[in-house]
Design brief:
heterodimer; A: alpha+beta; five-stranded mixed beta sheet; 1 helix; 20% helix; B: 202 residues; alpha+beta; 5 helices; 5 strands; 53% helix
């Protein structure tokens, strides 16, 4: 699983990568995930819906991330624009 | 005699000072300016372009092939609305509950909600994803990242995004004529793709 973050002026950056079957990796992934949420990021997992169409699943904790997810993408929290 | 010479010397010096000082001061300023250390800027004109290229690849890897082609060819993505009660508060009152509705997602512009059956424009949803850490001097995501963020938020949690956004009537920021033109372009584009697929299948 890869944790990616969108960044202005850069595109996405790889924050952390690990195997969810390895306890040590999970610990690192959870720590990186929590850090991003603390920074006010939103997290989404690209998935495929029942109809076969691609969509995203918003996740608010690492427990909500599907075990088979390949990527979690962090992006700045939405704010009302002008 | 000495007094007269001294007085003359002083007058000459004063006149020379009066005439020569402006030019001398300009020369000194120019000399200082030439020797001044100018801080080197770390602005990289290719950075934004590379960032956009990366963002396009990420968008392409996340959305359907048709959505990617739509963005590549037309510059926006259509996302179908999924809220049962309709696209806006009071929709049920207007008889819009259950009506199919969709959003046009443009980079760094409000999301435009409309009814595909009639082409009626419903609302503009102004939403931003500002990164206040400003890692590269700007708080704005690359265009394609902005589209992907809106796409993920709409397909993942439409209600939360719409509640976060500032809702306005159509035409506040996005010209309705441009939106209608885009909807026409979209219909033409879809027709061509369907025809191409039919030809390929036969």
């Amino acid at each position: 699983m890869k944790l990616l973050r969108m960044k202005p002026g850069h595109g996405e950056v790889l924050l952390e990568e690990g195997d969810v079957d390895l306890a040590g990796d999970v610990e690192r992934l959870v720590a990186a995930f929590s850090e991003q949420l603390e920074q006010g990021m939103w997290a989404a997992v690209p998935t495929e819906g029942g109809s076969g169409r691609r969509q995203a699943q918003m996740v608010r904790s690492f427990d909500e991330v599907p075990r088979d997810a390949e990527r979690v993408i962090f992006f700045p929290r939405a704010a009302g624009g002008r | 005699m000495l007094l007269a010479l001294s007085a003359t010397t002083i007058v000459i010096a004063a006149l020379l000072w009066e005439v020569g000082w402006p030019q001398a001061s300009q020369q000194i300023e120019r000399h200082r300016a030439r020797r001044r250390r100018i801080p080197a800027s770390d602005y990289d004109p290719g950075r934004e372009r590379r960032a956009e290229q990366r963002a396009r690849e990420l968008l392409r890897s996340c959305v359907d092939e048709d959505d990617w082609a739509m963005y590549r060819d037309l510059g926006f993505v259509r996302v179908w609305g999924a809220l049962a009660e309709g696209p806006e508060r009071g929709a049920a009152r207007e008889g819009l509950a259950g009506a199919p509705y969709a959003y046009l997602v443009y980079p760094h512009k409000p999301i435009v909600c409309y009814l595909p059956q009639t082409g009626r424009l419903l609302n503009e949803y102004c939403v931003e994803f500002p990164d206040e850490t400003r890692p590269y001097g700007s708080a704005l995501l690359p265009d394609s990242d902005d589209v992907l963020a809106k796409w993920m938020a709409l397909t993942g949690d439409e209600r939360r995004l719409i509640q976060t956004a500032n809702m306005h009537l159509p035409g506040r920021q996005v010209d309705p004529r441009q939106v209608r033109r885009d909807l026409w372009r979209l219909s033409q584009w879809e027709r061509q793709r369907i025809a191409r697929r039919a030809r390929a299948a036969s």
